[in-house]
Input
Amino acid sequence: MRFLANIDEVDTARAIAQLDAAETLVVVTSKSFGTRETLINACTLRQWLIEELGSGEGGISAAEITAKHIAACTCVPEAARCWGVAPELAFPFWDWVGGRYSVTSCVGHLPIALAFGGGVFDEFLEGCHAMDTHFTSAPPERNLPMMMGLLGVWNANFLHLKTRAVFPYCEALWRLPSHIQQVGFPVCAGRARRLAGRPVAWGCRPQLGTRVGGRWTW
Output
């Protein structure tokens, strides 16, 4: 399984290196199915599939290639279908699901199930449910999400620590720091707010002296 989020041609070349187009399924994940960078990558990969599979006497049409080799996870499945994705390969999720918190929707379900099987994803959901139950029922002194949140507020606003570092000692969690960076991004980016009577621009840069939870994560 490969992931492509950058429109850099070097990253695209890395993602398709040594892939057999005939055995490749491209999953386009876009909430609106209108994000420019995502569609650029989708078009690039579609063109690669067409060049690989549509040439020669046994080549198939571009429309057939798109319908068989490209799936979509989106809140707007009709937009994916208009783009050429087959209806049975357009997997919808609700528009109230935040992009970086959508791992329990088809955004996470499809790749995890393809890579590890549907049973593994069911176990993953059970773990998520167990943590949700813990958060809503455990007392504050034993509530892990609550304690982590309070520690973050204490470190940023009382100890004035500007950054935090995440060091996973299990090799299987080597991407966890990047995931935590992405999960925190929607909280502190894209808009300005007034906190404690002062304007604060949210760009993941800590504004110490105000009640801001955003910090740099390494």
Notes: The first strand starts at residue 26 and ends at 29. Strands lie at 26-29, 70-74, 90-92, 163-164, 189-195, 198-203, 216-217. The chain has a mean pLDDT of 85.
